[in-house]
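Appendix B. Chain record.
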Amino acid sequence: MRLPIRIYYEDTDCGGVVYYANYLKYFERGRTEFLRELGVSLPELREKGVVFVVRKAEVEYLSPCRYDDLLYLETGVSSATGATITFKHSVRKEGFDAEAVRGAVVLAAVGSDGRPKRVPEELKAALKAQGL
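Structure tokens predicted for this chain:
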């Protein structure tokens, strides 16, 4: 899944470079849109008693992105186990082949009590249908 992101002044630090933590927000957008394209509704899963929490996040900053850059965020799944899904993210600037930022985020499925739960069958089926 590929998501365009325009960098606005509010996204940058005092040096005009994207503030490092904003990439985690972009990754969140990518995961949400990825799941939406699979037909998975996070609000519906929440109603069924399953939510996802970030268990681990890794970000590697390779090249600065700046105000008014157009970025393309690619999001996919690298693995899924009983209770976790690992998403991979790659950010490229328009007109450049090289990655500017890359990362991975591990989400854990939990119930309303905060205890681990298995990834819902409908989500596993949607991932499997995509060859993941």
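Further analysis of this model is presented in Appendix C.
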